[in-house]
Design brief:
Length: 155
Amino acid sequence: MTLIGYIRKEIPEVSLRSSLIVGFPGETEKEFKELLSFIKEARFERLGIFRYSREEGTPAYGFKGQVSEKEKTRRFDEAMLLQQEISRGVNEGFKGRELKVLIDEDAKDHYVARTEYDAPEVDGTVYIKGKGLEVGQFYNVRIKDTYEYDLVGEI
């Protein structure tokens, strides 16, 4: 965590992302709780969480301590709920601020965009009311409302 704290101190507007797997063979409940503590402390702006998937032909297929599908799902749900709360808090911090967004789509009654922090098709969306914006162009948008993963803004 020292490195994450250092990065956040030196680059206040940084957006950190990561991907995690839950339910890898041998993962104990104690290790899972440590992972939850890490997620809570790191407060990633974007976090992908995946259930381990046992695949024939991979080294991990034969590992001892395979975690049941039910337990993997429970761990996944718990981790996702925690990240959802973190994401909601991160997004609430954007309310009233101006963000640079890229217009991805003209959806007739609104535009679909993403912030400079977001990857296409996997991260949150910014919905913008307005007219005359061009797909593929950047605009500064004031954030008016927030959800767990998405934002609502206006020009």
